[in-house]
Design a protein that fits this description.
Length: 208
């Protein structure tokens, strides 16, 4: 004789006998968020770039003779926004590659709810993450060269929306997961963006 189904047992539709739908998944791999990825990269670049700039300036003043340090800090690498942007974008690569390779995330990615891993959810490893960052820097950011970077970012945006993937993730066999939005994730992203904007404003005021 067939046993009666438990009142809490889910049916084939995924809805239980009591009418409760299964809890929604916390992460998703479809419906990518290009703007969240852009914001995560921007946060990482600003935070790491500012930290490295202050560190380089501190070491230069502490180690080099006064005139040499002054010449270095007032040189084109610091005074030219284009060269400074390229320099910071290059220096950011190993930092993000290291954290993504070990933990699948970075400060900016954590703020925006983004995780990079293998198909089984395990970290991709530092070497693969470094290669991913190099490909992203060249293909996605156009090596941070003015005008070129705008073109490559638009192309990467269109490809991500059309194919649900990017060249550097596809070549690296990495899977990007996005945290489904809740009030908590939205607040975290908003706070991260606001704090980064404040940091940019403070730096702009200092440089005036």
């Amino acid at each position: 004789m067939q046993q009666p189904a438990s009142p809490n047992a889910p049916d084939k539709s995924g809805i239980s006998a009591l009418g409760h739908a299964p809890p929604p998944a916390r992460w998703r791999t479809n419906n990518p968020s290009p703007w969240a990825r852009w914001a995560a990269r921007t946060i990482d670049t600003i935070v790491i770039g500012v930290s490295l700039t202050f560190l380089i300036g501190f070491v230069a003043v502490a180690v080099l003779p006064g005139e040499t340090a002054s010449a270095l800090l007032s040189g084109p690498m610091f005074s030219s926004s284009a060269l400074a942007g390229i320099m910071v974008s290059v220096l950011v690569v190993p930092f993000i590659g290291f954290t993504v390779g070990l933990m699948g995330s970075s400060l900016g990615k954590w703020v925006m709810g983004i995780h990079v891993a293998q198909a089984d959810g395990t970290p991709i490893g530092v070497s693969r993450a470094m290669l991913r960052e190099v490909n992203l820097f060249i293909i996605g950011l156009g090596m941070a060269i003015p005008i070129v970077t705008l073109v490559t970012q638009v192309m990467a945006y269109n490809r991500l929306k059309e194919s649900n993937n990017t060249n550097w993730d596809e070549a690296n066999s990495s899977v990007v997961r996005y945290l489904n939005h809740t009030w908590l994730t939205r607040c975290r992203a908003a706070v991260g963006i606001i704090l980064t904007s404040i940091l940019v404003g403070v730096l702009s005021a200092i440089s005036l």
